[in-house]
Amino acid sequence: MTPDRRRLAELTGDLSAAGGVRLVTLGDGVERGIRTLEFRTGSGLAFDVLVDRCMDIGHAEHAGRSFGWRSPTGFRHPGLHENADEDGLSWLRSFSGLVVTAGLDHTLFGGEVPADTYRYPPRRSVRHGLHGRAGNLPARLTGYGERWDGDRCVLWAEGEVRQAAVFAENLRLVRRIEADLGGDEIRLVDTVTNAGFEPAPHMFLYHINLGWPLLDEGARLEADIRETLWQSDSVAEQKADHVTFPGPAPGFVEQVYEHALNPGADGLHRVAVANDRLGMKVTVEWRAAEFPYFFEWLNLRSGNYAVGLEPSTHHVSGDAAAREDGSMIWLGPQESRTYRTTFRVSP
Prior knowledge:
This protein is mainly beta. The chain has three helices and 23 strands. It has an eight-stranded antiparallel β-sheet, with no helix packed on it. A six-stranded antiparallel β-sheet has the order 6-14-21-20-17-16. A five-stranded antiparallel β-sheet has the order 1-2-3-4-5, with no helix packed on it. It comes from Nonomuraea jabiensis. Pfam families: DUF4432.
């Protein structure tokens, strides 16, 4: 229990003794130059916000036990990103961390789609890579710190990411991240705006990646699944359990599912990964109306061991299919959409 504001002032001359937010710059290897906000709530919850990577959440732990996935790529500086290489799969060379944002105009696998809405004859089409551009765009950091509301102290950060080109999309993401001093949850609020004056396609997805030691043999998925709408061919080929997870295996081929979830009476979807042996559970909740679709990514490959929870604005069929069936979201000039997501760590 964190002392109240007056008692805390009596006990220490600096709030950082209890927790806080600190801006640092990573200094080595592929991570060199990335501005990072280190959040510590004082409850044992600590996480890093990667300012120069869309303000995504990289490392995350509770009481010294990591739950944000760490891949071999590290948190690669966006200046090293190869957006158009490897037929759009180069996104996988910078894929790591608790939250990796996909969007803002495209998610899922790449491809070529019409660009006629931008009314620029030389740009007849747009070619997208896996999960779009947003996750490798630096943010403009507009503020961070600690704010007292009575005896409640909120740790916060806010920034703006622009995905824009001349004669193309002009999309703005404003991201706010909060955590309470002494608390065990992270609150993420995103607002995406079409800052331009032509309609712009909008797709949005969070790749929420959980790893060891939370993910281990016997850890399990908790979700109110009404129906599994789609699964990758690898599910039938490998038959790995996607509810009670096995340990890592060499050569494992990712298994992907699209599940239809039942929302709670409050309109929220809740999905968790729980590890009873560790005494730890991470729950993610979001508004069903904002992210109506959900994918489970099961990556049991040795050296890449992870499970992904993916709230999404669109079905797994992707960009071209969404345009064809009319489900693509088109943001009008100056139109916005807001997304609210909470991460909670519990026994």
